[in-house]
């Protein structure tokens, strides 16, 4: 009988554990995402209904009226959840090795980067090629200004504002405004 406690690199990745990104199953999932992105980004001039169907084809959840303006880039897509009315402007990048959830009504400016992919701080472990992910959770009705960067493992509370160009390294409470590099709470 096979040992069911042994998990594949893909299962480890999805669980936020250390994994090797070069595993064939993981590489195949990335290649599928790359092929999907070519179609999605090529649909910039297509009707919104066509782009909506493409989003639903790849993302784990797409709420009513959610929009991502191409070009858009992600690692897998299947770890991204968009709430109703969420909006991502041109040139957003989402490294979704684990879950990225974007709440309803959240507005994300152009060139925003959301990273869940992370690497060990210990050099010996890092040299083995292992990496891991930490989820990013963005609440409802958040506004994220253009060019902001959200680092692995952060949570942004409902109704928060992230200033353009901010580098968010820590959680942002509901209703707060965070600005700068590293982002600091205003007020």
UniProtKB/TrEMBL annotation:
Which InterPro entries does its entry note? Hexapep, Hexapep_transf_CS, Hexapeptide_acetyltransf, Mac_dom, Trimer_LpxA-like_sf
UniProtKB keywords: Acyltransferase, Nodulation, Repeat, Transferase
Q: Which residues form the Maltose/galactoside acetyltransferase domain?
A: 10-64
Keyword Lipid metabolism (UniProt): no
Q: Does the keyword Metal-binding apply?
A: no
Task: Report the domain of life of the source organism.
Answer: Bacteria
Indicate what this protein is called per its UniProt record: Nodulation protein L
Source organism: Ancylobacter tetraedralis
The uppermost taxa in this organism's lineage are: Bacteria, Pseudomonadati, Pseudomonadota, Alphaproteobacteria, Hyphomicrobiales
């Amino acid at each position: 009988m096979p040992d069911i406690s042994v998990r594949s690199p893909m299962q480890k990745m999805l669980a936020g554990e250390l994994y090797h990104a070069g595993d064939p199953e993981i590489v195949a999932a990335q290649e599928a995402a790359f092929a999907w992105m070519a179609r999605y980004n090529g649909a910039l001039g297509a009707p919104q209904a066509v782009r909506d169907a493409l989003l639903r084809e790849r993302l784990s959840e797409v709420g009513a009226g959610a929009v991502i303006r191409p070009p858009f880039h992600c690692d897998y897509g299947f770890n991204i959840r968009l709430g109703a009315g969420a909006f991502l402007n041109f040139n957003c990048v989402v490294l979704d090795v684990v879950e990225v959830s974007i709440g309803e009504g959240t507005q994300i400016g152009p060139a925003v980067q959301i990273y869940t992919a992370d690497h060990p701080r210990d050099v010996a472990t890092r040299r083995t090629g292992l990496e891991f992910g930490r989820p990013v959770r963005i609440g409802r009705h958040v506004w994220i200004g253009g060019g902001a960067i959200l680092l692995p493992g952060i949570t942004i509370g409902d109704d928060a504002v992230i200033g353009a160009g901010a580098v968010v390294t820590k959680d942002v409470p509901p209703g707060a405004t965070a600005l700068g590099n590293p982002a600091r709470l205003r007020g």
